C-alpha cells in the first residue's frame, strides 16, 4: 500500500493555470486562489501558462518550487492541462491538487472534486492526499484515457471546431458527428495481453483509466479500474451509420450491450502494427494528440499520484454497483 507523503499544516500552494482552459473565465483563477489562500492564512504562488508548448516547462518549475517550499502542486485547467502537470508531479513526492476548468473534467469528477471553483478550492485547502491511479502508455501519463485510430482523429477535429465556435460539450458533439460521417480507415493491430496474442482490425483502440467515464457510456470495466487495472475497448469494423448508432448507445449508457464492442480489463497490454512498415502512430492521451513509436505498452504506473480529494469516491461507486458490498477497511 503506498504511503501518503507528509503534508504539513498550512502547506503553500504552487498553482499552474492554463489561461486557455475553461468557460471564458481565464482571469478568474488567479484572484480566486489568492482570496481563498489569504482567508485560510496560506501562501500561494501562481504560474500561468500562456502557450500550450510551455506547459511542461511551467509544470517542472512548479514541482521545483513545491519541493523548495514543502508545498503542493496544483493544476487548474481541463483534463489536458491536469495531465501535463501530473506528468511532472508523478514520482516527485509532492502532493497534487486540481481545480477543474475544462469541458468534461473527468479526472476531477471521478475523484469527487467539485467543478465549481469555490468548492474545489475548499477541498484543496481542507482535505488530505490520497493515492490515485495513473495510466502509462510508453511512459507517458494518462489520467482519463489513451487511444489510437478514430478517437485521436475525432479529437483533432474537435480542437478545430473549438477554435471556431468555442469550448462546450455541444461543440464537441458536433465535431464528433462530422468526423464519423466523413468516414474512417481501420487499423490492423497485433495485441498481446496476459500471455495471449491476437490480431485485430478495428477503427479505434481505447484504453480507460477513469471509472466514471466507463460507467457513463455503459461499459462494465469500471470495476477493473477501481481494482488497480485498466480497461480496454475495441470496436469491430463497422460503417459510418453503425458508428453513429454506437455513439448514441454510449450517450444513453448502453455501449456495453452492442455486439460490435469488445471490452476487457487488464494490467498490461502491448500493441504493435500488424501491417509491415508501420513504426509510429497517433496516440491521444487525455485529449492531447501526439505521435508515438511502436510498440505501445499500456499499464498502470507503479506509483500513484497523491491527490488531494474528498474521501470515498471509489467506494461509493462500488456500493452503487453492488449495494450488498462492504466498504474496505
Spatial gap, N to C terminus:
13 Å
CATH architecture annotation of the largest domain:
Sandwich
The total of helices stands at 11
Radius of gyration from CA coordinates: 20 Å
Q: What is the mean pLDDT?
A: 84
> What's the story with the biggest beta sheet?
6 strands, antiparallel
Shape: elongated
User: How does the helix and strand content classify structurally?
Assistant: alpha+beta
Q: Report the top-level CATH class of the largest domain.
A: Mainly Beta
Strand order in space, largest sheet: 7-6-17-14-9-10
- Percentage of residues in DSSP E strands: 25-35%
Helix content: 25-40%
* Whole-number total of structural domains: 2
Please provide the count of β strands.
18
Low-confidence runs:
325-329
Order of helices and strands: EHEHEHEHHEEEEHHEEEHHEHEEEEEEH
CATH topology term of the largest domain: Tumour Suppressor Smad4
Give a concise summary.
The protein has helices at 29-40, 55-69, 79-89, 106-110, 117-126, 150-165, 169-182, 211-217, 222-226, 240-251, 313-321, and strands spanning 13-18, 44-49, 72-77, 96-100, 129-132, 135-137, 140-142, 145-149, 187-193, 196-202, 204-208, 230-235, 261-266, 269-273, 280-285, 288-293, 296-300, 305-308. The chain has 329 residues and is α+β, with helices and mostly antiparallel strands. Helix 1 (29-40) packs parallel to helix 5.
Mind explaining what this structure looks like?
The protein has 329 residues and is α+β, with helices and mostly antiparallel strands. The protein has two domains: 13-133 and 303-321, Rossmann fold, CATH 3.40.50; 140-300, Tumour Suppressor Smad4. The protein has helices spanning 29-40, 55-69, 79-89, 106-110, 117-126, 150-165, 169-182, 211-217, 222-226, 240-251, 313-321, and strands at residues 13-18, 44-49, 72-77, 96-100, 129-132, 135-137, 140-142, 145-149, 187-193, 196-202, 204-208, 230-235, 261-266, 269-273, 280-285, 288-293, 296-300, 305-308. A six-stranded antiparallel sheet has the order 7-6-17-14-9-10. A six-stranded antiparallel sheet has the order 13-12-11-8-15-16. A hairpin with a 2-residue loop joins β6 and β7. α7 (169-182) runs antiparallel to α10. The longest helix is centred in the middle third of the chain and has 16 residues, at 150-165. The model is unreliable at 325-329 (pLDDT under 50).
Amino acid at each position: 500500500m503506498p504511503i501518503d507523503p507528509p503534508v504539513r499544516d498550512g502547506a503553500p500552494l504552487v498553482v499552474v493555470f492554463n489561461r486557455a482552459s475553461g468557460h471564458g473565465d481565464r482571469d478568474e483563477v488567479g484572484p480566486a486562489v489568492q482570496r481563498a489562500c489569504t482567508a485560510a492564512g496560506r501562501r500561494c504562488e501562481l504560474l500561468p501558462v500562456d502557450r500550450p508548448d510551455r506547459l511542461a516547462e511551467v509544470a517542472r518549475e512548479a514541482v521545483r518550487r513545491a519541493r523548495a517550499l514543502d508545498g503542493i502542486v496544483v493544476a487548474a485547467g481541463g483534463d489536458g492541462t491536469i495531465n501535463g502537470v501530473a506528468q511532472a508531479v508523478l514520482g516527485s513526492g509532492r502532493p497534487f491538487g486540481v481545480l477543474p476548468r475544462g469541458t468534461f473534467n473527468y479526472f476531477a469528477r471521478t475523484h469527487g472534486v467539485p467543478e465549481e471553483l469555490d468548492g474545489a478550492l475548499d477541498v484543496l485547502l481542507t482535505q488530505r492526499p490520497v493515492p490515485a491511479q495513473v495510466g502509462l502508455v510508453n511512459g507517458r501519463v494518462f489520467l482519463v484515457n489513451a487511444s489510437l485510430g478514430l478517437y485521436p482523429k475525432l479529437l483533432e477535429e474537435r480542437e478545430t471546431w473549438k477554435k471556431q465556435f468555442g469550448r462546450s460539450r455541444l461543440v464537441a458533439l458536433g465535431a464528433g458527428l462530422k468526423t464519423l460521417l466523413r468516414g474512417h480507415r481501420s487499423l490492423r493491430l497485433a495485441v498481446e495481453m496476459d500471455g495471449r496474442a491476437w490480431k485485430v482490425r478495428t477503427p479505434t483502440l481505447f484504453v480507460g483509466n477513469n471509472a466514471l467515464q466507463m460507467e457513463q457510456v455503459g461499459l462494465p470495466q469500471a470495476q477493473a479500474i477501481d481494482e488497480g487495472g485498466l480497461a480496454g475497448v475495441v470496436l469491430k469494423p463497422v460503417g459510418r451509420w453503425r458508428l453513429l448508432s454506437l455513439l448514441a448507445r454510449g450517450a444513453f449508457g448502453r455501449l456495453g450491450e452492442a455486439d460490435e464492442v469488445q471490452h476487457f480489463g487488464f494490467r498490461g497490454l502491448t500493441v504493435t502494427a500488424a501491417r509491415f512498415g508501420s513504426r509510429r502512430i497517433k496516440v491521444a492521451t487525455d485529449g492531447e494528440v501526439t505521435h508515438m513509436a511502436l510498440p505501445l505498452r499500456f499499464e498502470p504506473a507503479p506509483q500513484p499520484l497523491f491527490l488531494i480529494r474528498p474521501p470515498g469516491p471509489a467506494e461509493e461507486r462500488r456500493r452503487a454497483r453492488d449495494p450488498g458490498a462492504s466498504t474496505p477497511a
